[in-house]
C-alpha cells in the first residue's frame, strides 16, 4: 500500500474514474467514454493545478466519501453538493487543502446529477488504450468505486491557481437540445418529425452514462424493419422500436441498427449529463446536416462560389 492514495469509505450510487476519454478507437468498437460533463471535469482539474486530462472522480446523485493517505488539494465541481472535511463544511467549486487522514465527503447533489472530485496529481489508475476512464458499457478501465477500495494518486504538480470565483452555468428547469437532422430522418413521417420538435418529452430514470433516455410520445415511422448495423457517434439521437428518442452519451455503443433521426452537437451534451429524471426535454431541429461524400465537397464548392 502506498501513502499517496485514498481509501473509499462511501462509494455512492455510482462513482467512476474519468478523464477526457479514449479518442480514436471507435473502429475497434471502443467508445470515447470519459467525463460526461467535460467542462466541469476540466474546471476541477484547473482548480487544483492539474492538466485537464488528469483523472477525476465522477459521482452520480449521491456523491461519495474518501479518506486521504497524503495531504492533497481537492476541488469539487459539476452538480452543486455539500462538501465536508472531517464533518466540517468546506467550499464547493474551490480548492481545499485536505490533510492526511482526513475524510473528504462530496454529498448528494442539490441540483443536477454528476459532481467531479479532483485531487492534485490526479487519480493514478492504470491506463487502458491511453485513458484511465471507466467505460460502463465495455468494462474497460478501473471498476466503479467500492467500499474499501484503495486508489493511488499521482505526484502533485505546481501550485493551484488562486481564484475569486468559478463559472457555473446552473441547471435549467428545461433541457433544450438542438438537433441536426439525419442521417435517417427519412425513416420518419412528417408527423413523426413534428412530434420530435413539439412533443412533451421528459428525462427517463432509466438514463445512464450510455444514453439519456426519454419518456413521452413516440415518433411515427415511415419505414418498417430495421437497418443493418451502422456506426453510431457521440450525440446520436437514436430511436428504438418504442419510438422514444435516446441521446447517446460517452459510453454509447459504436454501432447500432435502430435509425438515428439526428445528432445533438457535443457542446450541449454536458447539460444533458446533468438533467435529473423528470426534467422536461425540448428538441429543436436546426435543419438537416449533409452526410456522405457530398458533405466533403461542400467546403470546396462554397469556396469556389466565394471566389467566383
UniProtKB/TrEMBL annotation:
Pfam families: CT_A_B
Keywords: ATP-binding, Hydrolase, Nucleotide-binding
Ranges where the Carboxyltransferase domain occurs: 27-303
Family annotation (Gene3D superfamilies): Cyclophilin-like (2.40.100.10)
SMART domains named in the record: AHS2
GO terms of molecular function: hydrolase activity
Residue ranges that the Swiss-Prot or TrEMBL entry lists as coiled coil: none
UniProt-listed InterPro entries: CT_A_B, Cyclophilin-like_dom_sf, PxpC
Ranges that cross the membrane: none
Keyword Nucleotide-binding: yes
Family matches, as NCBIfam families: urea_amlyse_rel
Protein name: Allophanate hydrolase
Organism: Streptomyces hygroscopicus
Lineage of producing organism: Bacteria, Bacillati, Actinomycetota, Actinomycetes, Kitasatosporales
Amino acid at each position: 500500500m502506498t501513502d499517496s492514495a485514498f481509501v473509499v469509505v462511501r462509494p455512492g450510487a455510482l462513482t467512476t474514474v474519468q478523464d477526457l476519454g479514449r479518442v480514436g478507437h471507435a473502429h475497434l468498437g471502443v467508445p470515447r467514454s470519459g467525463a460526461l460533463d467535460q467542462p466541469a471535469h476540466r474546471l476541477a482539474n484547473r482548480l487544483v493545478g492539474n492538466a485537464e486530462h488528469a483523472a477525476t472522480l465522477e459521482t452520480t446523485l449521491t456523491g461519495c466519501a474518501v479518506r486521504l493517505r497524503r495531504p492533497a488539494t481537492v476541488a469539487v465541481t459539476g452538480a452543486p453538493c455539500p462538501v465536508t472535511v472531517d464533518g466540517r463544511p468546506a467550499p464547493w467549486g474551490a480548492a481545499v487543502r485536505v490533510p492526511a487522514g482526513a475524510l473528504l465527503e462530496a454529498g448528494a447533489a442539490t441540483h443536477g446529477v454528476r459532481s467531479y472530485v479532483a485531487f492534485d496529481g490526479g487519480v493514478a489508475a492504470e491506463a487502458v488504450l491511453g485513458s484511465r476512464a471507466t467505460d460502463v458499457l465495455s468494462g474497460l478501465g478501473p471498476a466503479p468505486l467500492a467500499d474499501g477500495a484503495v486508489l493511488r494518486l499521482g505526484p502533485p504538480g505546481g501550485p493551484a491557481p488562486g481564484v475569486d470565483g468559478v463559472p457555473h452555468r446552473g441547471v435549467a428547469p428545461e433541457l433544450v437540445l438542438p438537433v441536426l437532422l439525419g442521417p435517417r430522418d427519412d425513416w420518419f413521417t412528417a408527423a413523426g418529425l413534428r412530434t420530435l420538435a413539439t412533443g412533451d418529452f421528459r428525462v427517463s430514470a432509466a438514463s445512464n452514462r450510455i444514453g439519456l433516455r426519454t419518456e413521452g410520445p413516440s415518433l411515427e415511422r415511415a419505414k418498417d424493419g430495421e437497418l443493418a448495423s451502422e456506426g453510431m457517434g457521440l450525440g446520436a439521437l437514436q430511436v428504438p422500436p418504442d419510438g422514444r428518442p435516446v441521446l447517446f452519451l460517452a459510453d454509447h455503443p459504436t454501432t447500432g441498427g435502430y435509425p438515428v433521426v439526428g445528432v445533438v452537437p457535443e457542446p450541449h451534451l454536458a447539460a444533458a449529463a446533468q438533467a435529473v429524471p423528470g426534467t422536461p426535454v425540448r428538441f429543436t431541429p436546426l435543419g438537416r446536416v449533409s452526410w456522405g461524400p457530398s458533405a466533403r465537397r461542400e467546403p470546396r464548392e462554397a469556396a469556389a462560389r466565394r471566389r467566383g
